[in-house]
Amino acid sequence: MDINKIREDFPILKEKAYGKPLVYFDNAATTQKPIQVINTINEYNSRFNANIHRGVHYLSDLTTNAFEKARKTVQAFINAKSDKEIIFTSGTTASINLVAFSFGEKFVKQGDEIIVSEMEHHSNIVPWQLLCERKKAVLKVIPVTEAGELEYERIPELISEKTKLIAVTHVSNALGTVNDIRRIIALAKKHEIPVLIDGAQSAQHIKIDVQELDCDFYVFSGHKIYGPTGTGVLYGKENLLEEMVPWQGGGEMIRSVSFEKTTFNDLPFKFEAGTPNFVGAIGLGAAIDYISAIGLKEIANYENTLLEYASLQVGSFEEARFYGTAKHKASVLSFLFMGLNPYDVGTILDKLGIAVRTGTHCAEPLMRKFKITGTVRASFSFYNTKEEIDVFVEGLKKVRRLFG
Ligand code: 7TS
Fold first, then answer.
1. Is the distance from the beta carbon of residue 140 to the nearest atom of ligand 1 less than 6 Å?
2. Which of 26, 50, 27, 46 lies closest to 38 in space, CA to CA?
């Protein structure tokens, strides 16, 4: 990997914050966009904009083809069996809400159970709570160890004949833990329970093969994998998606409408009501082409060296206390420094041009488990460097001087 060449592709990395070179370590929140994605979006907005699937005209045809090509790009990226299994959404949150509603309406009834884990992002908790409230179903929770790993041996006792779905994150956004989703899927399959994998923090770091994983749903956000904001993907197995009820009604998701009876379109359109973010989806296709050209393996190897280096450097401060010390981690370093409020640490780093995230990371139950109100989180991408980590470490030294 030629880091200098890669960094040239990301215009924002040349920006300054308060006159200091930007050190962007908030990649778990959103990733920056390469020029290839920016150009693709510009090109479609400036030359080819026309609504898809509708027009008989040149531009509409062209854009429809590009949108459907992007769907095939996503299909190949996660190795789905069919492009009917790829639903474009506005992000992970929308994808999970779609499943919670459409799967929930069809398959979940009073007394049924849904299993999530204690380390989930709020968007993989609240949609299930809403479903449980609607259906008078029960939400069960896989606990997390002090190291921030799932307590796998507790899962069998949580499963019952009433379990309708298990929804877990692949990688924790707050701790960086990479969960052994194969183990969970294998266990679920024994009981014929569908599994949803929240891939918001994994699609950009780990090569995904949904057929090999044999998960039933896999969801991710475009903006976290170098694509445009307001794009996302729901992968679902065709047989399940076929049975699920529509989520939103409107144009495109119907075959025929009358006041007496409306019939619905085929997959994937049944779940894509209204004008989709087609320019965004085309941009997402460009982002996937970009990272695929570098190679997910190369990306993962390099990001792991960054994480190891940062863990060693930050770990050398006796004032640092890490949260999430799992054996298998990806790209996230979460810690408290000198027992300070994370916000204070983040604010000083910010003034030095270093962007980190502080707070609960939308994982309040997990913070409650560790009896903390939040952490400082540095999250890395393949365009970051060891030199930037050195700047970050100097920043922590400054925090120590100020508060020491
Ligand atoms: N699931 C996980 C594991 C996430 O990390 C996030 C966003 C979401 C779901 C929701 O994704 P969205 O694109 O629909 O918002 N995580 C973060 C974060 O860690 N900091 O900002 C957003």
1. no
2. 46
pTM (predicted TM-score): 0.98
When the candidates are 3.10.129.10, 1.50.40.10, 3.50.50.60, 3.40.640.10, the CATH number that belongs to 38-292 is: 3.40.640.10
198 lines ligand 1 (CB under 6 A): yes
- Tell me where in the chain the CATH 3.40.640.10 domain(s) lie: 38-292
Q: What is the mean pLDDT of the chain?
A: 98
Which fold would CATH assign to domain 3-32+295-403? Aspartate Aminotransferase, domain 1 (3.90.1150)
Give me the count of residues in the chain: 404
Q: Which of 92, 126, 198, 225 has most ligand 1 atoms within 8 Å of CB, for mutation?
A: 92
Residue of 90, 126, 171, 201 to test ligand 1 pocket, by largest number of atoms within 8 Å of CB: 201
**pLDDT tens digits, one per residue of 260-281:** 999 999 999 999 999 999 999 9
How far is 396 from 394, CA to CA, in rounded Å?
5
Scanning the structure block, which residue is given the tokens 């999250």?
Answer: 379
Residues 6+ apart with CB under 8 A from 134: 104
Cβ(92) – ligand 1 distance below 6 Å: yes
pLDDT in tens, 299-338: 999 999 999 999 999 999 999 999 999 999 999 999 999 9
